[in-house]
Amino acid sequence: MTFAAWLSVASICLLGAVSPGPSLAMVLRHTLEGSRWQGMLAALSHGAGVGLYALLVVLGLGHLLAEQPLVFSLLTYAGAAYLAWLGWKALSAAGSGQLQTPQGLGEGSLLAAIRDGFLVAFLNPKIAIFFVALFAQFLQPGQALEGKLILAATAWMIDTGWYLLVAYGLSHSLVLPWLQRHALWINRITGVLLLLLALRVVTL
Hints:
The protein is mainly α. Helix content is 80%, strand content 0%. The two termini are 35 Å apart.
């Protein structure tokens, strides 16, 4: 693979990662209600979910998902239900008028960040379809495994790196206090956004 081809893949992956959506809302919520580490754990596990789909696609399994509408639909509806559940949790937190603090968060919250990060990615099979369309332009018959792994690693590192930056930036001492002061409205907006995204997933 030439450097120009790799740069094209990296640019498209970056554009996909920075697009606002449920992943951003999820990382925001864990950073706001938890801590920098909780947000970064969510970012790492989300990147793992994206990287898993990218790896499956370069190994040829992405086409199987695209050709199995039942499996695709089941994953899609499961993802929509999970987004709706996250949205309800955000609205419930807003309704309570309370904001968790890092001191009040334990191992369970860290595990929840890992779980939410991975499942928001894994329960979105459209990520696999995106990679099928993207990688098809750069995968050639008989291509060496090394080139395929470079494609998958690029998608994984860019997604992980972007959301790590998001979690780090949101938890900055100049940003987090402002977010915490407006936590009530942020939770409300995040909750409504997640519910709307869940509805969009099942209607498209």
